[in-house]
Design goal:
Helices cover 33% and strands 6% of the residues. It is mainly alpha-helical.
Length: 70
């Protein structure tokens, strides 16, 4: 999932992310800081046109929080 799309979806949630920032205030950098302790890093896959973008692998996110019902 692209970092931009993930941040956009998370910003719609009520409450706080890890007690540090409101979800509405999340940015790609803040998301990376939240995920770092879980060993999750963004990747740079290629689009069909050859350009690159930042994204997280679903499997990495699920492995970091296996107890999450999301």
């Amino acid at each position: 999932m692209s970092t931009a799309e993930l941040v956009t979806r998370l910003r719609e949630l009520p409450g706080e992310a890890d007690g540090r920032w409101r979800y509405a205030d999340l940015t790609p950098v803040r998301l990376a800081l939240l995920l770092r302790p879980y060993g999750v890093q963004s990747r740079k896959p290629r689009n069909v046109d050859g350009s690159r973008y930042r994204a997280y692998r679903r499997g990495d996110l699920q492995a970091a929080r296996p107890d999450c019902s999301c």
